[in-house]
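User: Just a sanity check before I run the rest of the batch. Below are the structure tokens for the first item. I only need the designed sequence back.
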């Protein structure tokens, strides 16, 4: 029988604030974010690292919080959707998604926005092909890909063809 994971105190920096959380280091980061810190931007979809709904930024890179152990995130800068902005101060990427009405059910949006944010940080003026490639592994069952593409182009200061 495998040994039971041993909780320890993990210091996590999330959205610029430091949090001490008692959890087994193997705990997937998404559980800490949602259950301990009340940050519900990251969504639990597949739980297998395949759909992208749980995406957060770790040191500026898009990462899937359902498969990343919380213990691997100490000393790193974690940013969730809430850390980008909110209703009164949306990030330009969030505002572009609102302007383009790039949602149907909305479940994928966290992952789309966080992945787009990471893309635009490393490449402020991506082509449509580069955007499509960056979002390729973020799944949307509603089929709002055209609006999502437009939103990212808008956030980048461009426009869809
Ligand atoms: Fe993490 Fe699907 S819930 S990739």
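Assistant: Here's the designed sequence for the first item:
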């Amino acid at each position: 029988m495998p040994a039971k994971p041993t909780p320890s105190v993990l210091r996590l920096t999330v959205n610029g604030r430091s949090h001490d959380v008692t959890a087994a280091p193997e705990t997937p980061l998404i559980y800490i974010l949602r259950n301990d810190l009340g940050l519900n931007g990251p969504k639990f979809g597949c739980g297998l690292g395949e759909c992208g709904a749980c995406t957060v930024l770790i040191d500026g890179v898009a990462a899937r919080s359902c498969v990343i152990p919380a213990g691997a995130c100490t000393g790193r800068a974690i940013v969730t959707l809430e850390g980008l902005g909110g209703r009164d101060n949306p990030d330009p990427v969030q505002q572009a998604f609102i302007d383009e009405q790039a949602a149907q059910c909305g479940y994928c949006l966290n992952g789309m926005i966080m992945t787009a944010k990471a893309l635009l940080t490393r490449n402020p003026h991506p082509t449509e092909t580069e955007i499509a490639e960056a979002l390729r592994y973020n799944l949307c069952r509603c089929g709002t890909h055209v609006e999502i593409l437009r939103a990212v182009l808008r956030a980048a200061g461009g426009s869809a063809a």
